[in-house]
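Suppose you are handed only these lines of text.
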Amino acid sequence: MAIERTFSIIKPDAVAKNLVGAIYQRFEAAGLKVVAAKMVHLDKAKAEGFYAEHSERPFFNALVEFMTSGPVMVSVLEGENAVLRHREIMGATNPADALAGTLRADYADSIDENAVHGSDAPASAAREIAYFFSDEELCPRTR
Ligand code: RTP
Ligand code: MG
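From them, the structure of the protein bound to ribavirin triphosphate can be written out as follows.
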C-alpha cells in the first residue's frame, strides 16, 4: 500500500471543547503524520463551497451555520491507507452509531455536531487539500 494523504477538519464543537491535542494524539498514535495544519474561521462562502455536494440536502443550512460558528483546525495527514484509516479513527457520521473508541463515539454530541471531518475517498482528499492548502504549505515528512 502506497503512502496516501487525506484531509481532516477538527470541527468547531471539538475546538471549543479544547480537544485539538487529544484528537491529534489519536492520529499520531495510528501512524498518521501531520504534513500541514492551520486554524481558520470559515466564512459562509468557504463552508458552502466545501460542502457543495450536500447543497440540496435538508441539513445543508444547519451544517454551514455550524461550520462557521467558530474556528476549526484543518490538517493534511499522511500515511499508509490514510483516507480509510482516518475514517476508521473518526467513526460513523452519527455518534450514536460510532464504534467505541472512535473520535465521534468519544467526543461528538450529535450527527450535526460530530467533532471531525475526514475525506471519503482519495479523489475528494486531493480536492479538499487543494481547497485549503497551497503546495508550499505541505511539508514532506522524510522521517
Ligand atoms: P464529514 O463529511 O463531515 O466528514 O461527515 P461524513 O462524511 O461522515 O458525512 P456526510 O454524509 O459527508 O455529511 C456531512 C456532514 O453533514 C452532517 N449531516 N447531517 N442530519 C443529517 O441527517 C445529517 N447527515 C449528515 C453531518 O455533520 C456530517 O458530518
Ligand atoms: Mg463527508
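What can we learn from it? The longest helix spans residues 122-132. The pocket of ribavirin triphosphate (ligand 1) is lined by residues 54, 59, 63, 93, 111-112, 114, 117-118, 120 (CB under 6 Å).
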